[in-house]
Amino acid sequence: MKISSEQLVGHLKKTLSPVYLVSGDEIVSVQESMQAIRYKAHSQGFSERRQFVYERGFDWETVFFEAKSMSLFAEKKLIEIRLTSTKIGDSGSKAVQEICRSMLDADLVFVIVCDKLDPSTQRSKWVKSIEAAGAWVQIWPIELARLPQWIAQRAQHKGLEISALGIQMIVERVEGNLLAAVQELEKLWLANGAGRISDELLQNSITDSSRFNVYALVDSCLAGKSARAAHILSGLFAEGVDPVLVLWALVRDIRVLCDLSAAASQGQNVEMLFNQYRIWERRKPLIRTALQRHTQKTWFIILSKCGKIDLAIKGFSNENVKDLLLNLCITLSKKDLFSSNQATTLTMQ
């Protein structure tokens, strides 16, 4: 069964599937879907949760052993597997198919979570086996036209009364970043509690946080201003901003730059792709500047750095998250550090 994140709530009201695949790049929607599945599982007695992270060299036997072992504390288990890559190879594909074929029972629920799947992976045997045995939850980006409604619904859920103009202020501030929108609402709720938020109060809140915000950090990195980026990052750390938000804001543009760099290397007109990637007019010069700073190879090396930072944030690495984020910002800001080859040449008209 294939369902959207919007359909998941209705699905969980009726049933709990034995296996789920949650895929997508919108971290907020992915987290909300995962939480919904966990809540449903817990309500049905799945009080023990085990988590695994798939990376190169991962031993799928550890998952099988956990599934078969008895627990002293709970009879039912929720087993989550986070894929750091959607390319899990032949052994991974066979392992997932084995889970779907012979390891599903009333006392186990499996949840596999990963980034957006490309078309070839969507057609793979392991994805099809999950789709047949359980549910594949596809997370799609929220269209800009739907973003005001999305923000308004979450504001209402927190008891915040915000005018249409106020909602639009938030839309323009977050530029499609759902995690930033959630952070903005959380900040308003913590500072003012539930109730009406005037347009003036909202404007002041946005202005007060404009000095050290993740958007300024990303823009400084793209503009090549490494010293300013380091200064802003230090300010964000001092304010206690969640590293997840910092990384997600950076990854959002890094993914786009990887795609644009690959397109440029194939001779495509990058300017024509800006609308497809929802790049706002005022940010196009920054994207152009950054794109010409690094080679296609370097952009993918930078993206792989983000994966390592994500693992560190989740506690699967002992490396210092702040140091890793600083290194990422400096790498983004500086001229190509990994290759002496000429950086991306843009095809623009």
Topology:
Elements: E1 2-4, H1 5-14, E2 19-23, H2 27-43, E3 48-54, H3 61-68, E4 77-83, H4 89-102, E5 108-114, H5 119-122, H6 125-133, E6 135-138, H7 147-157, E7 160-162, H8 164-174, H9 178-192, E8 195-197, H10 199-208, H11 214-223, H12 226-238, H13 243-265, H14 270-273, H15 284-291, H16 296-313, H17 321-333
Parallel strand pairs: 1-6, 2-5, 2-6, 3-4, 4-5, 7-8
Structure description:
The protein has 3 domains: 137 residues, P-loop containing nucleotide triphosphate hydrolases (Rossmann fold); 65 residues, Orthogonal Bundle (Helicase, Ruva Protein, domain 3), CATH 1.10.8; 120 residues, Zinc Finger, Delta Prime, domain 3. The protein is built from 17 helices and 8 strands. Strand 3, helix 3 and strand 4 form a beta-alpha-beta unit. The termini are far apart. The C terminus is likely disordered. It is an enzyme of class 2 (transferase).
- Poorly predicted ranges (pLDDT <50, ≥5 residues)? 339-349
The CATH topology of the largest domain is Rossmann fold
Principal-axes shape call: globular
CATH class of the largest domain: Alpha Beta
Based on helices, strands and strand pairing, what is the structural class? alpha/beta
What's the structural domain tally?
3
Radius of gyration: 22 Å
For the record, give the distance between the C-alpha atoms at the N and C termini, rounded to a whole number: 44 Å
The count of β-strands is 8
Could you report the average pLDDT, rounded to the nearest whole number? 85
The number of helical segments is 17
- Helical percentage: 55-70%
Biggest β-sheet strands, sense, barrel: 6 strands, parallel
- CATH homology group of the largest domain: P-loop containing nucleotide triphosphate hydrolases
Q: Report strand order across the widest sheet.
A: 1-6-2-5-4-3
Question: How big a fraction of the residues is strand?
Answer: 5-15%
What string, H for helix and E for strand, traces the elements in order? EHEHEHEHEHHEHEHHEHHHHHHHH
- So what's the oligomer here? single chain
CATH architecture grouping of the largest domain: 3-Layer(aba) Sandwich
Family: Belongs to the DNA polymerase HolA subunit family.
Pfam family, one: DNA_pol3_delt_C
Organism: hydrothermal vent metagenome
Protein name: DNA polymerase III subunit delta
